[in-house]
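Dear H.,

Thanks for agreeing to be a second pair of eyes. The structure we're designing against is below in token form, covering all 226 positions.
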């Protein structure tokens, strides 16, 4: 399956060259010209990497990056105009994985995309977990070792979140924000209860395997090597 790159950029001429380079290199691309479209897309599609212009018409790229980071671990590469104040430290503090300064060569950007995807540890692991877990988005079902799990709506959402980013530690807060419609009304313990249920259901399929890891004081993650 092709890796999906979301391009967030308001200048269509720049988008054209990026799309051409990425698609030539075997990626699938999605383009949006405004920042406000990004979170809704991420909530319904699995995106492998985001190319994010800092100078968007509706929201500042930094703010958008922070909002994305609160919910998703997807790698982000910033596009910056020469005048934008950014250095590596700033980019990393905000949660970006890399940045490219305009004007840039599309080939170079594509090379950066590949480099970031290569060094994102969850990416290689995702392939192995993908074989073990299979998500059917239309039926809202997850199969584990080819057995369909009987999951509640929340359990499905939590497990899907883990499967998309193996190895990434999600705090209870992140899981709640990501999954619950009204996060404030839920307690941390609710997350624990759902995790416990998911673990029990996974155990009925494979009693000797424990894919969900408790990271003390931090949250939960899906084991990278299953
Ligand atoms: Ca722009």
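And this is the sequence the design step returned. I haven't edited it by hand at all.
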């Amino acid at each position: 399956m092709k890796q999906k790159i979301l391009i967030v950029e308001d200048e269509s001429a720049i988008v054209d060259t990026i799309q051409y380079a990425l698609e030539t290199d075997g990626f699938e691309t999605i383009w949006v010209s405004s920042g406000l479209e990004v979170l809704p897309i991420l909530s319904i599609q699995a995106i492998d990497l985001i190319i994010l212009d800092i100078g968007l018409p509706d929201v500042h790229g930094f703010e958008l990056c922070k909002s994305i980071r609160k919910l998703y671990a997807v790698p982000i590469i910033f596009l910056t105009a020469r005048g934008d104040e950014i250095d590596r430290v700033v980019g990393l503090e905000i949660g970006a994985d890399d940045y490219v300064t305009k004007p840039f060569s599309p080939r170079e950007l594509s090379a950066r995309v590949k480099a970031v995807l290569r060094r994102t540890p969850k990416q290689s692991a995702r392939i192995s977990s993908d074989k073990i877990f299979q998500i059917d988005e239309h039926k809202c079902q997850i199969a584990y070792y080819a057995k369909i799990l009987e999951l509640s709506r929340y359990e499905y959402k939590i497990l899907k979140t883990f499967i998309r980013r193996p190895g990434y530690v999600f705090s209870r807060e992140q899981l709640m924000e990501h999954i619950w419609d009204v996060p404030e009304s839920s307690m941390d313990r609710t997350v624990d209860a759902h995790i416990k249920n998911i673990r029990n259901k996974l155990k009925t399929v494979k009693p000797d395997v424990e894919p969900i890891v408790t990271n003390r004081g931090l949250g939960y993650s899906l084991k990278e090597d299953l």
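Two observations from my side: Residues 10-11, 53, 55-56 surround calcium ion (CB under 6 Å). Confidence is low (pLDDT under 50) at residues 122-128.

Warmly,
E.
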